[in-house]
Design goal:
The chain has 165 residues and is an alpha+beta fold. It contains four helices and seven strands, in the order βααβββαβαββ. Bound molecules: coenzyme A.
């Protein structure tokens, strides 16, 4: 498996993996599957500092992706990036997410970010185990922060300061 920068030709696979995460109701407050127009627009704002990496498995193509996303439009937070990570259902639990999180750190630092934050559901145990193992700490839990299928859901904030060495 190689982890490499995403290209436009990866968008179909990125979209399919994202839509699995939406359907699984474990990763995002998004409820409706996204389409090609959506993912193209998303990719167009992920060309500069907010990079996307894919995990490319020999013979199977793209099996997961990670992205840096804008955290805040405030200048004071320009060094903080938000993170998303999605692994295709068939490939979860095989080290793909760990490889993606490791690979995005030097990319984030090279783009001038000193911290990565992320938001996850308290019931996303796989996500939390992955993040803790990669050195993320829990900041806290927002109660009733979002609505998913008509129900309030809590959202947990996690963060990692990126070391300079
Ligand atoms: C969360 C996710 C990105 C983890 O990626 P992954 O490739 O499955 O993770 P890894 O194989 O690198 O495993 C990392 C840790 O998570 C644990 N883990 C993976 N799948 C798990 C599961 N289903 N249940 C519990 N723990 C799990 C692993 O056991 C491992 O910890 P360990 O080495 O101590 O056992 C992946 O499961 C996924 O894409 N899920 C759906 C989308 C999602 O939830 N994204 C995150 C949104 S916040």
């Amino acid at each position: 498996m190689v982890v490499r920068p995403a290209e436009a030709t990866d968008l179909e696979a990125i979209l399919a993996i994202y839509n699995e995460g939406i359907v699984d109701r474990i990763a995002t407050l998004e409820e409706e599957p996204k389409d090609q127009d959506y993912i193209e627009a998303w990719f167009s704002v992920h060309q500069q500092r907010y990079r996307v990496l894919v995990a490319d498995m020999a013979g199977d193509g793209v099996v997961g992706w990670v992205s840096l996303n804008p955290y805040s439009s405030r200048c004071a937070y320009a060094g903080v990036a938000d993170l998303s990570v999605y692994v295709g259902r068939r490939w979860r639990g095989r080290g793909v997410g760990s490889a993606l999180l490791k690979a995005i750190e030097p990319v984030a630092q090279a783009q001038g970010f000193y911290k990565i934050v992320l938001f996850t559901f308290p019931f996303n145990e796989a996500g939390q185990r992955l993040y803790r193992k990669q050195g993320y700490r829990t900041v806290g839990t927002f109660f009733q922060q979002g609505i998913l299928d008509g129900q309030f859901v809590d959202v947990m904030a996690m963060e990692k300061l990126l070391s300079k060495d």
